[in-house]
Amino acid sequence: MSSPITPLPPPPSLLTAQQPLHIAPKDYIALSIYFHEQTPHMDIATYYASLSAASGNSVGLFLYGIALRHGQGVPQDSKLGVEILSKSADAAMGMYSTSANGGSIGFTDTLSRLPGTGAVRALAKKELGAALFELGNCYQNGWGVNVSLHTALYYFIVASGLGEVDAHVTLADAYMRGELGVKVDKKEAAKYYRLAVEAGYKEPGLHWIYKEKWK
User: Fold this and answer.
1) SS3 (DSSP) at 97
2) Tens digit of each residue's pLDDT (9 = 90 or more) over 138-154
């Protein structure tokens, strides 16, 4: 059984920082993202992420995990960061059961319900995709965890689903070369290369991915 997450104590800078009037005081995710954009206040951003993470919120878990992984506003703790990122990814992949109708809510649906502006939700989605991609890299390379290509592939696929360009390219390369435990599949590679190009990725020599043969 995993131990509960203890939120960080309020940082001293919180006393003097200007609080955004357009964000509710307990909207920890939106507050974390807001202060993340204010470079001198990474400690406040991570504090709010830890409050959200302590409540079990998957988005808060992502933001707090990535902060620990990189030492953003908190002493770096790669092992704990990966553990928390794993908890968040498991929650995201598991689908959220609802008591109202016994159905389920997907991770993308959960993001669409985030409080705040559309820009805040878009930034959250972008940051989560990047966090998942990094988690995949951790499992692929054994950074803070045992190497597991199966788990790395799992997280790269989720990151790709969130629109992470690097995840698109990583999966495309894997299917081209037969890496990450998958067999060579040029059609699957072309699919991920197309997603990457549509998202702004530029690489010469990818004209073949649009041929009917590879669609």
Assistant:
1) strand
2) 889 888 788 999 989 98
